[in-house]
Every structure is written in C-alpha cells, then in structure tokens.
Specification:
388 residues; Elongation Factor Tu (Ef-tu), domain 3; OB fold (Dihydrolipoamide Acetyltransferase, E2P); 4 domains; 6-stranded antiparallel beta barrel; 5-stranded mixed beta sheet
Length: 388
C-alpha cells in the first residue's frame, strides 16, 4: 500500500508540471498575439479611410432660367368674302392641309355676271364709237390737206376732240369691265399660304356678307403650323444676355418631355414698364405638324455663360457663407481650403480661387474628415454632366 501511494504522488507531480507548462505557453502566445496586433494596428490606420473624390476640371458653365410659354401659329388668317353672295362650293373642312393658291370655297353672285356682261358691251360700243370718230377726223384732215381752207378749222378741231374722247371712252369701259372681272375673282376664296384649315364657319347655300365690317362672319380660318412662334417674357435682369440667333432648348411636357431646339428670332428691344420684362420670340420648325398651337412649353435659357470655367461638383463644397473644400494632396492627406465661388449651376460651382485644375476634392459629407488626415481616394462620376 505504501508503494502504491508513492507512485500516485509521482504521477500527480508530473501532471502538475505539465499543466504549468501549458499555462505558460498559452500566456506567451497571448502576449505575442497582443504585440503582433499592436504592431499591425498602425499599418491599418496608415492605409486611411476610403473617400470619394472628383477632379477639378474646366467646364462651360451657364445659368439656366426656365420660362413658360405657349405655341402659336407663325401666320393665321380668317378668310372673309370681299363680295356678298351665297356659298356655292366649300372644298375643305377643318383639319385639311392646304397649299398656297389652292381653291377653298366659291361664292355665287349672279348680279356680278350681268354687270360684267354689261361692261363688256359698253367696251365694244366705245371701241365702235372710237373707230367712227377717228375715221371722220382722218377724212376731214385728208380733205384739208388736198384743198386748203375748204374745211373750217373749227370742224377739224371738233373732229379731233371727238376722236380723242372716243379713245378715252374705250379706256374707261375697259377699266369698268376689269373691275367686274376682279369682283368676280373675289368669289373664289384661295389659301394665302401653306397651312392647315383650323376652323370652318360656313356651309354651301349660306349667304355671306362682304367683309367690310368687323362683325361679318368668316368662312374659314387658315393657320401656318409648319413653323410656330413661341413668345415669352424675359425679366430685365437677363435682357443683356438675349441675342438674336442664340440656340434655345424647348421642353414640351405634353409630348412626354420632348426636347426641341429653336433660335431666338426677334425681341422687342424694349422693357415693359408694368411687368419689367422684354417680349422675346423663338421660331420652332414643325414640318411633321407634331406640335399644335396652344400647347404649353418650357423655354430653357442658358444665361450668364462662363466658358472654360474652373468647376467643382456642388457636393464638394461645404461651409455655407464661408465655403471650403477638402483637397486630397499628393500624399493622400486631407487639406481644408477656403474657396471663392462664382456661378452656381444645378450640379457645379464655378471656383474663382482656392484650387487648381487637376486637383482632387472630396465629395459628400465632410464632417468625418479633419485637416491632415490620411485617406485612400477613390474617383467617382457624379452625373451625366461630368461624363461629357
């Protein structure tokens, strides 16, 4: 029994030593891991936080001003009758496309035909009277030449006057006849230009009064819709930036936001005293008649143009009244710089001083960065404008 007890004690001593060795090894390993982690931590910090940056570039900037406007025809005419009469034929209806000179309607004026026939007869009579008067004068003149003083001078003068009067009567009769021919031409209503019939106000058989007063009924209305006018007021602050020939963007919401291009064709060159605006007009081609007079549009004017301006994204500027940008220098460190701003567009600022072309600026929230902080810059594209 004594020997067995001694043997167990020896085993217990060996186990105690082994356990102590294991504990020591674990402690050493823990210390080494802590040291390794402490040494590795500065390397992670050295890498820095990833930040989004954009490059300072030169862009053509301008201030965009939007103004509502309404399309109207380039030309529009209400067709009235020059003479009173009944509508005999109506060859078009509203919505029809017409060409200049095309016959639109015909009036029936029976009394004009009778008056024209009477004028033609009067012209023939005047021609016959003239022939007779000229023959009498020629004969008397011939006799007087062969037998001087045989014919009284008074008779010669009278014959000559009758000849001249008869000739003048022909001209008067011919003018009267042409007047009725012209009046008869007025019974034919023709299109004054290429366009569209936008209104029809009369049917065959209706009596139409001559359009010599403002309350007479028109037969038709014809509009030139192949080219439209877009009139809009420009406030006095932007009058200086309006020039004839400038290209203007036009958005039409009723066509799904379709964007058209027009040119400033004319402007009043005078500011209205009441509204402090200047009326300006754009001509918009409309060959396919997709646009309709009366549609609303939004005119986008590019004003206060700054060509090749030094520009940064709006997301790169903070500080309110004291604007600053965070520049990432060549050592990938943050530099907080005050800047002087110029023109502001929806996505960019013009920078007058504080940065140089090609430098990188932080975009986004600046609150988590400090001056001198080490970072890892990552270039980003902010908008389609930046890609152009």
């Amino acid at each position: 029994m004594q020997k067995k007890f001694q043997f167990n004690g020896a085993q217990l001593g060996v186990k105690t030593i082994s356990l102590a060795v294991i504990v020591i090894v674990v402690l050493v390993a823990g210390v080494c891991w802590t040291v390794h982690r402490a040494q590795a931590q500065p390397a992670v910090e050295h890498a820095g936080d990833t930040v989004a940056v954009a490059q300072v570039t030169r862009k053509d900037l301008s201030k965009q001003v939007t103004i509502s406007a309404e399309f109207r025809p380039y030309q529009e005419v209400e067709m009235h009758a020059k003479v009173s009469g009944y509508v005999r034929e109506m060859n078009v209806d509203f919505g029809d496309k017409v060409k200049a000179g095309e016959l639109l309607a015909t009036l029936e004026v029976p009394e004009l035909n009778a008056e024209l026939a009477n004028a033609e007869a009067a012209e023939k009579k005047a021609e016959a009277d003239s022939t007779n008067a000229h023959l009498i004068y020629s004969r008397l003149q011939s006799v007087n030449q062969q037998h001087p003083n045989l014919v009284a001078q008074q008779d010669l003068d009278t014959a000559q006057a009758n000849d001249l009067t008869a000739t003048a009567a022909i001209a008067a009769a011919r003018a009267e006849m042409e007047k009725y021919e012209t009046m008869l031409d007025y019974t034919k209503i023709t299109a004054p230009f290429d366009g569209v019939v936008t209104k029809r106000s009369a049917d065959p058989g209706v009596l139409i009064q001559s359009g010599i007063s403002s309350d007479t009924q028109p037969l038709l209305r014809v509009s030139d819709n192949y080219r439209l006018r877009l009139d809009f007021p420009v406030t006095v602050d932007y009058v200086k930036d309006i020039h004839a020939g400038d290209t203007v963007e036009v958005r039409v919401d009723s066509l799904g936001g379709k964007i058209l291009t027009g040119k400033i064709s004319r402007f009043a060159d005078s500011v209205d005293d009441r509204t402090r605006t200047m009326m300006t007009e754009i001509e918009v081609p409309n060959p396919d008649l997709q646009l309709v007079p009366g549609m609303y549009a939004t005119v986008v004017l590019d004003l206060d143009r700054r060509p090749a301006a030094l520009a940064v994204p709006t997301e790169a500027v903070s500080g309110g009244d004291a604007p600053v940008v965070f520049v990432v220098n060549s050592r990938d460190e943050i530099e907080k710089r005050p800047v002087k701003l110029g023109l502001e567009t929806p996505d960019k600022y013009e920078v007058l001083s504080g940065v140089s072309e090609g430098e990188r600026v932080v975009v986004g929230n600046h609150a988590e960065f400090t001056d001198g902080q080490k970072v890892e810059p990552k270039p980003v594209q902010l908008s389609m404008t930046d890609e152009n």
